[in-house]
Amino acid sequence: MQRIHEPAGLGEGELLVAMLGSEGISAHLLGQHLLGALGELPASGLLAILVADEDVPRARALIAAYNAAEPLPAEPPVADDPGRQPGVLLC
């Protein structure tokens, strides 16, 4: 397994692990149980996403696409498309 990404926080880490899982990539979030000890440990570098060696290129590409996503311009909801809301990320 290789360490491929350090998420900014627990929420982002869990989201990315779930996203990778939905793409068929088994990923693990390392360090999530260390966050309770922040007063005693360095505050950065605690979290990491690990994937199998063979999944590294695809997982890195998916995370890069996630990081490059931009929110759609704010528009009022469209009556015939209730799923289209302002602030939705365009990936």
TrEMBL record:
Organism field: Pseudomonas linyingensis
InterPro entries (alphabetical): DUF2007
Region annotation (Disordered) ranges: 72-91
Source superkingdom: Bacteria
Residue ranges constituting the DUF2007 domain according to the UniProt record: 15-65
Protein name listed in UniProt: Signal transducing protein
